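SUBJECT: A protein chain and its fold
Encoding: whole-number codes for local backbone shapes
Chain under study, with its fold:
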Amino acid sequence: MGRALDGQPRWSAADVIARVQGQTRDGSIILLHDGGTSPDRIVEIVSAIVTDLRRRGFEFERLDRMIGQKND
């Protein structure tokens, strides 16, 4: 998928959510930033994305498993 733009304050949480929802495809890797914004905003964005994508039939996997690396 393309950039989520979640680290840029000019983008609202709703904008980030819509952007990720619209760009996610099978095999997508979603990278979101965990700094530079409030914890409430992060929770809002991640919760909405996970809820929507699960509803649409997507499953989540750890990145190391997805790319075949062993986690020690």
